């Protein structure tokens, strides 16, 4: 029996999940030690509870999808609203190097997927579904490409495989990033953990102009009702822009996931207002709404994971996804970490890469927040990852997928 929670109950559940994660991280040292984000910890417990209800009582409980999607779009809009052209220029060479490295990983991820799929007796295109479509692309991209693979390329079961793979990636991407960054930091002695008093004092300090959106989620932002209203209006513009462009580009060469248009709408509005109208944007208000949307979206997404879809995966599919996880770890440790400088920033970037390389950009931000809250800030990582993970890499992914289909389709 299926139950879809109303928006009110969905919001209440998300808040309960977030506080559950906070309590778990406070009383279970393992979670704090390995920098597991609070929404991941609480969300997985909620997903397990829902799995037990499904298995033993036959109930399937889902959150309100429009509300969940709205929080996701708000998060990506906040990235766009925080990214003026000056910051893009500030990213400079490191941003370009990271983009090139991750673009190479899109090819690697699909290569691993196709090779393993062929080795275990699956259609090689199944490896693309369980490659960059589901992992770097996420649930939305898997849902969009699945029917195309089934109807146009006769890949039977592409949609459920894509959804299951993206679900797997969401879990692993949230669990892998923190331990990987901690391993790199300890191995190369890049930073020492801040003690509780220092972290508390750091979080209580005023937000500085050098800290980017989402970099310091626990710091207090002083905003007024007027600031909040103006900021909500900008979010509304970005989401409306996304809806219009999504409808206009359906079935064309410019069709992109809705969240990419939300991010683009935020960037457009930010730079038109600042450059064209010479009006200053109140970043602290954007930070508050963006961090709130991120936390609520992650809580809803993770508690909604249908874990029985993973349990039903055939052995070959499990082997394929394990191979992708190993490839992600190896690439993050031996390629991304090294080309980005083998320093603390590159370790934080590696944790973010695990987040969006296996799941989604919100996972990446949560991974990095967990690391920087423990070891200290990384301005470079919070400048580069949102722009690459939420915008540029999706364009690269589409180009790579289309190229593979031209050759193997």
From TrEMBL:
Main location group: membrane
Location of this chain's protein in the cell: Cell inner membrane
Pfam assignment, any one: Glt_symporter
Family membership noted in the UniProt record: Belongs to the glutamate:Na(+) symporter (ESS) (TC 2.A.27) family.
Listed NCBIfam families: gltS
Function as written in the Swiss-Prot or TrEMBL entry: Catalyzes the sodium-dependent transport of glutamate.
Protein name (record): Sodium/glutamate symporter
Organism annotation: Acinetobacter terrae
């Amino acid at each position: 029996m299926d139950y879809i929670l109303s928006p009110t109950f969905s919001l209440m559940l998300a808040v309960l999940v977030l506080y559950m994660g906070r309590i778990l991280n406070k009383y279970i040292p393992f979670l704090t030690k390995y920098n597991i984000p609070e929404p991941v910890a609480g969300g997985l417990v909620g997903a397990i509870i829902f799995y037990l209800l499904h298995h033993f009582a036959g109930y399937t409980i889902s959150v309100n999808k429009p509300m969940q999607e709205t929080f996701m779009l708000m998060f990506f809009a906040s990235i766009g609203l925080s990214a003026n052209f000056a910051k893009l220029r500030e990213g400079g060479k490191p941003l370009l190097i990271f983009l090139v490295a991750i673009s190479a990983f899109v090819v690697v991820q699909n290569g691993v997927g196709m090779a393993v799929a062929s080795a275990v007796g699956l259609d090689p295109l199944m490896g693309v579904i369980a490659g960059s479509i589901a992992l770097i692309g996420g649930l939305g991209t898997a849902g969009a490409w699945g029917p195309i693979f089934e109807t146009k390329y006769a890949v039977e079961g592409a949609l459920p495989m894509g959804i299951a793979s993206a679900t797997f990636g969401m879990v692993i991407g949230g669990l892998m990033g923190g331990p990987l960054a901690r391993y790199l930091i300890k191995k190369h002695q890049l930073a020492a953990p801040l003690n509780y008093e220092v972290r508390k004092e750091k979080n209580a300090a005023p937000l500085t102009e050098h800290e980017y959106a989402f970099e310091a989620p626990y710091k207090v932002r002083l905003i007024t009702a007027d600031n909040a209203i103006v900021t909500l209006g900008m979010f509304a513009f970005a989401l409306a822009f996304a809806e219009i462009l999504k409808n206009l580009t359906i079935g064309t060469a410019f069709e992109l996931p809705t969240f990419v248009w939300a991010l683009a709408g935020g960037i457009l509005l930010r730079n038109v207002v600042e450059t064209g109208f010479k009006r200053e944007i109140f970043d602290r208000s954007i930070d508050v709404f963006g961090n709130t949307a991120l936390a609520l979206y992650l809580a809803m997404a993770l508690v909604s994971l249908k874990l029985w879809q993973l349990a039903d995966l055939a052995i070959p599919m499990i082997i394929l996804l394990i191979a992708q996880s190993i490839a992600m770890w190896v690439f993050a440790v031996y390629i991304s970490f090294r080309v980005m400088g083998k320093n603390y920033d590159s370790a934080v970037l590696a944790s973010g890469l695990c987040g969006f390389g296996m799941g989604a950009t919100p996972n990446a931000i949560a991974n990095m927040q967990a690391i920087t809250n423990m070891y200290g800030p990384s301005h470079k990582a919070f400048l580069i990852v949102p722009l690459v993970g939420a915008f540029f890499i999706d364009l690269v992914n589409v180009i790579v997928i289309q190229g593979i289909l031209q050759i193997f389709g």
